[in-house]
Amino acid sequence: MSPTTGTPFDTWLASDPEVARLIGAEAEREATSLQLIASENFTSPAVLAATGSIFTNKYAEGYPGRRYYGGNQVVDEVEDLARDRATALFGADHANVQPHAGATANLAVYQALLEPGDTILAMRLDHGGHLTHGSPASITSKIWNFVSYGVSPATDDPDKPGEVIDFDQVADIARRERPKLIVAGSTAYARIIDPHPFREIADSVGALFLFDAAHPAGLVAGKAHPSPVGVADVVTLTTHKTLRGPRGGAILCNAEHAKAIDQAVFPGLQGGPLEHAIAAKAVAFAEASRAEFRDYAAAVVANAAALAGALAGEGFRLVSGGTENHQVLVDLRTFDAELTGKVAQEVLDRSGITCNRNTIPDDPRSPFVTSGLRLGSAAETTAGMGVEEMGRIGALIGETLRHRDDEAVLSSVRAEVRELCASFPPYPTLTGG
Ligand code: DSN
User: How many whole angstroms from 126 Cα to the centroid of ligand 1?
Assistant: First the structure.
């Protein structure tokens, strides 16, 4: 049953049975398999409703009170609401809620603060950085000069396993390269990122400091992680990962950079804002300001730790020895030297366990193949799973990968996954589950 069942969407979609069928099929997939991609979540029905609202009809180039088209009285109210809720939630001076994605938000910040050719110091992609942190495949590396820092080497000491951001290295490279901007943040890093050492290093070389909080935004909002707001000059986020809102981005900054950031987003980079997504961002910011969201953020972290513990028990090596956020980064090589991330992802998919392959620090395999898997607890925590279920999921992952050529085992795991998911439907109020 689709999450739109019983809502007006269901009636409206009757005119397009093909798309209606696909929405139903995706709803079925999401409800009957485990969603462990660290950058995904299940939004609330309210976020879904706002995303599907008639704000999608309206052109609104510009900002509240300064639009290029008429008829924006209501849109102005909704965008102001989203901005006010974002600044209140994160304690920021200014919010721009128009970026279509986290990647666009980062591009806008570079454009606002830098000149083409300026040097940016950011995290290495193969150590957990993002494409917009200077990947050769990204436009960012064609416009700006990126230099990168990484994590420390892995050790055999369980008390100091390494693979954490090496601040001595960050400081050394900053002194040598004199970047105009230092970027903190990652897509595959299971530890808390403390903004303060980055601030000190940035100040020591006269650099600006961007904290890309795409992944931990919800953990920051839910007070499970330290806030970079007020420490970094600018903070970018995505609204759809741990923050549990609609797909999109946002930028928070101090008053000094507000005008430049706004101009960089529009007209610098984007045209008309997606006001239906902005309405949904407003809903998500309000939801994340409630007391329950703090419980949620704490549960996300506890669940990731439980999943990490279960996976370690199955014989997997965990990059950095464990987790302090919503992610677990698994090195498959100790479990099975022949097993690649690509094969593991595909086999787990067949068992109903959805995750993504990921490079691990200094991965000998290509980014398309990889030696690692990235898993996340944000979505299934929303569905109501707890540490007990995470233990069961860790065991199911071990069983699947240990017997990956045995169809009977894969079918039996698939059945167990269905049973587990049936007890934790992501949209119980809409599907009657
Ligand atoms: N694709 C996002 C992630 O999975 O982390 C980053 O852009």
Answer: 13
